[in-house]
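Sample intake sheet
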Amino acid sequence: MKLSRPVSWFLLAFGVWSWVIWITFVKNLVADGSGLAFDDGHPTAYFWVHLTLAVVSFVLGTVVGAIGLRGLRALRRTS
């Protein structure tokens, strides 16, 4: 399957965007002072669910970004 240049750039940008957004979210989650993420210093179910979402999003962002990068490299080789 051959990806077009715009699609490859979109996929790569999506992967980078996913990392930026979720790193920010995890930092905010760890620094949470409202009591949602930690109860007396112990992680809550809210923390674990959202940490799991972040990890899955990191993996998916990495995979999608890698597909975009491979598409761009393939286009460079054929040009």
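Comment: The chain has two helices and two strands. The chain has a mean pLDDT of 94.
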